[in-house]
Write a structure and sequence with these properties.
The chain has 4 helices and 2 strands, in the order ααβαβα. The protein is mainly alpha-helical. 8% of the residues are buried. About 9% of the residues have low confidence. Bound molecules: zinc ion.
Length: 112
């Protein structure tokens, strides 16, 4: 047989054109799809139902608030069952919502 030589590898020049950019590199938000749930109409309706149920009254300080916050009693941590449970959502005013988190951190250090 003859000495057939393979074609020189010139395809390397095309590689940059063929390489498609991927979304799989370094986008941490992909790991938290539940953040998008807060934008759904389903969530908007659910939180309004909770506000009406509790008359826009903060469940911590019993004050009626004009800008209520729908708070998950048990942290859902991405669990749809907890996230969409109306019984697991309560009305909070902003000061209590912000303060409650700080209190929870203090509770992590008993005796202090
Ligand atoms: Zn409050």
């Amino acid at each position: 047989m003859g000495r057939l030589k393979a074609m020189p590898p010139r395809l390397g020049r095309l590689a940059p054109l063929l390489a498609m950019p991927t979304d799989t590199e370094g986008h941490s938000k992909v790991n938290e799809p539940w953040r998008g749930w807060y934008k759904l109409a389903r969530w908007q309706r659910l939180r309004i139902r909770v506000f009406v149920r509790e008359n826009y009254t903060c469940q911590l300080c019993s004050r009626v608030t004009g800008r209520p916050i729908a708070d998950h009693v048990r942290p859902h941590r991405g669990d749809p069952a907890l996230f969409w449970s109306e019984a697991n959502v309560q009305t909070l005013c902003k000061p209590c919502h912000d303060g409650e988190k700080q209190a929870a951190e203090r509770r992590a250090h008993p005796g202090g």
